[in-house]
């Protein structure tokens, strides 16, 4: 399967998780490309105060994984803007993940994942699964490995 891992990463954590997922998917015989959403504007981006300067095209992939950080207890505004402007995804299999620092889901994790799923459903995608990745400390890294394995197992 040709899988697009489409991410926004401000400080590298989501990019690192995406790289681990790419390796796991490749080990399962998939082709997985990482593509990054890029913006023009001040960082950290605030809603309505940036422009998408690079919006990866989802059309060339059989399946998609979207990855984003949490920002201010919510889905990062860049990922929200990207998902909102996507064309219909027409039954495409999709997985989502977010990375966050605070090791408690209700500090933005469930909210962010919920918004990603809603945006994907509204485009007609089939959301196969989602993971919250806590990105701080050694214990979190071990859980991150588990989350990445769960994502890879969806394809
Ligand atoms: C401005 C800002 C706001 C953040 N807000 C939250 C938050 O509400 N909850 C949380 O768990 N982490 C929060 N974080 C931490 C990031 O979500 C976390 O470090 C994430 O892994 C960053 O991903 P990236 O390195 O791919 O940009 C915030 C970070 C920044 C810079």
Give short descriptive properties of this protein:
155 residues, alpha/beta, binds flavin mononucleotide, Rossmann fold, six-stranded mixed sheet, two-stranded antiparallel sheet
Q: Briefly, what is this?
A:
The chain has 155 residues and is an alpha/beta fold. It has 4 helices and 8 strands.
Classify the fold: give the CATH topology: Rossmann fold
**Distance between the amino and carboxyl termini:** 8 Å
Main CATH class:
Alpha Beta
Radius of gyration: 14 Å
The best one-word shape is globular
Report the β-strand fraction as a percent range: 25-35%
Which molecules are bound besides the chains? flavin mononucleotide
The overall strand count is 8
- CATH architecture type: 3-Layer(aba) Sandwich
- Uncertain segments are none
Main beta-sheet strand count, sense and barrel state = 6 strands, mixed
Query: Which structural class do the helices and strands define?
Result: alpha/beta
State the CATH superfamily name.
Flavodoxin domain
Quickly count the domains.
1
Number of helices, counting only DSSP H or I runs of 4 residues or more: 4
Mean pLDDT: 95
What order do the helices and strands follow? EHEEEEEHEHEH
Estimate the helix proportion, in percent.
25-40%
